[in-house]
Design a protein that fits this description.
Elements (H helix, E strand, L loop, with lengths): L1 H13 L5 H11 L5 H9 L4 H39 L17 H15 L3 E2 L5 E3 H4 L24 E3 L4 H10 L4 E10 L11 E11 L4 H16 L5 E8 L2 E10 L16 E10 L1 H6 L8 E8 H9 L12 H4 L6
Parallel strand pairs: 1-4
Antiparallel strand pairs: 2-3, 4-5, 5-9, 6-7, 7-8, 8-9
Helix pairs in contact: 1-4, 2-4, 3-4, 5-10
Bound molecules: phenylalanine.
């Protein structure tokens, strides 16, 4: 038994553990119940009493040696494994950017327009989308049964309540609640009962504005709107005003800008006129001021209104209005968030 133990000790010492698989091979060879060492422990019971002590301690030494070698090699390979896996992570690499979305092109344009008017002292104002007849029509000089009501095909909810057809209704609410000077812009969604096509939708977005004070003139209106389009489209832009009709303004006009594509030379976007229509405007009719309790002898004012989709279509050269509303992320993700 002594010789066997010596041999075993030698084998344990000589066993080369070079790869992690060798650790397990070592354990199987020396440390399981089927191992030679275990057999020797079994035989130990039969060892004569006089050498039992000596053999016992030898056996234990060999077992300890095997156990120790196994444990050491195990922890050695563990640490190699963990340094290897930590090396595969490069902490200096930038993380993959999450797609956090972009602003809708209509919001981008709306914000740009608001910022321009803010510089001129206009404040932001909002109102309800479900309106009564008074704020959407009557207070704006649309008498009952007046043909001008047909200019805007209306979604009625009841006889007296409708989805607002323009944000001029917010102008009325402001005039009723504030004393001049009033200088405000009112963006918002408006509704008209129109067949949906590339050029029309049953709802769209507007920004309207009013300026009411003593001695506000048509010259103020022209200068304000000229400044606005120069800021939005660039200094070279040209404007022209054409006489028009709105029940709530007198005189009324429509403002055109020189075509953004052909710069006034004529192309199919401007239908070879060199100009594009972008907004309606005019001096607020004295009847409208009076209806909201503003003294029309003391105060005058101008108002204007434009469709945001139309401006966005011109600016981004989008031909189909519906593109703005079908939530196609491929289309929307082209717009850098601003
Ligand atoms: N409210 C008009 C529309 O929706 C636009 C407008 C506003 C025209 C103010 C003149 C003055 O068409």
């Amino acid at each position: 038994m002594k010789e066997q133990l010596e041999k075993l000790k030698e084998q344990i010492e000589m066993f080369e553990i070079k790869q992690s698989e060798h650790v397990e091979a070592f354990r199987l060879k020396f440390l399981t119940k089927k191992s030679e060492l275990n057999d020797l422990f079994e035989q130990f019971k039969l060892v004569p009493a006089d050498i039992k002590k000596e053999m016992g301690s030898k056996l234990n030494q060999v077992k300890q040696k095997a156990q120790q070698k196994w444990e050491e090699s195990q922890s050695q390979f563990e640490s190699i494994k963990s340094t290897k896996s930590s090396q595969t992570i490069d902490y200096s690499l930038g993380s993959e950017a999450d797609f956090i979305g972009v602003r809708h092109p209509l919001s981008i344009i709306e914000n740009e327009i608001i910022e321009i008017f803010k510089k001129l002292g206009f404040v932001y104002s909002e109102g309800p989308e479900i309106e009564d007849d008074w704020h959407n029509f009557s207070a704006l000089n649309f008498p009952p049964n007046h043909p001008a009501r047909d200019m805007q095909d209306t979604f009625f909810i009841s006889e007296n309540i409708a989805l607002r057809t323009h944000t001029s209704s917010v102008q009325v609410r402001l005039m009723e609640n504030q004393k001049p000077p009033i200088r405000a812009i009112m963006p918002g969604r408006v509704y008209r009962n129109e067949a949906i096509s590339a050029r029309a939708n049953c709802f769209f977005h507007q920004i309207e504005g009013i300026y009411i004070d003593e001695k506000v003139s048509f010259a103020d209106l022209k200068q304000t709107l000229f400044y606005f389009v120069q800021e939005l489209f660039g200094q070279e832009i040209q404007v022209r005003f054409r006489p028009s009709y709105f029940p709530f303004t007198e005189p009324s006009a429509e403002m055109d800008i020189s075509c953004l594509l052909c710069k006034g030379k004529g192309c199919n976007v401007c239908k070879y006129t060199g100009f594009l229509e972008i907004l309606g405007c005019g001096m607020i009719d004295p009847n409208v001021l009076e209806a909201s309790g503003i003294d029309s002898k003391k105060y005058s004012g101008f108002a204007f209104g434009m469709g945001i989709e139309r401006i966005a279509m011109l600016k981004y050269e989008v031909k189909d209005l519906r593109t703005y509303f079908n939530n196609d992320t491929k289309f929307l993700s082209q717009f850098e968030s601003q």
